[in-house]
Design brief:
The chain is mainly alpha-helical. This is DNA-binding transcriptional MerR regulator.
């Protein structure tokens, strides 16, 4: 699959996919004339990278995770540890945002009750 096709199915720009490749997050084979050739498995991997990014994992940690992934099954315990640590971070962020939402809801309720009909 071409970079354009991967971009369409993952909804990630070609520019970003090239950047991921440059940073070593994805490894891509090339055809005889040098065009990138993505595999079916790259779709889920790229989507997973995006989810890690969207949930606040730092790029340097995504790079480390990716490097370990490409090293193979022997690195699974370290990758598991990374994901467990990131899960705790996501839970902390979720709690923080829930508190922000509660505060916002209280302020909205205050205004609803304070504004005469």
């Amino acid at each position: 699959m071409t970079i354009g096709e991967l971009s369409k199915v993952t909804n990630i720009s070609e520019y970003t996919l090239r950047y991921y490749e440059k940073k070593g997050l994805i490894r891509v084979s090339r055809d005889p004339i040098g065009r990138r050739c993505y595999e079916q498995g790259d779709i889920e991997w790229v989507k997973f990278i995006q989810r890690l990014k969207d949930t606040g994992m730092l790029l340097r940690d995504i790079e480390k995770y990716s490097k370990l992934r490409y090293e193979g099954a022997a690195t699974m315990p370290e990758r598991l540890e990374m994901l467990q640590g990131h899960r705790l971070y996501v839970l902390e962020q979720q709690k923080k945002w829930a508190e922000y939402l509660d505060n916002l809801d209280c302020k909205i309720e205050f205004y609803k009750n304070s504004i005469p009909d």
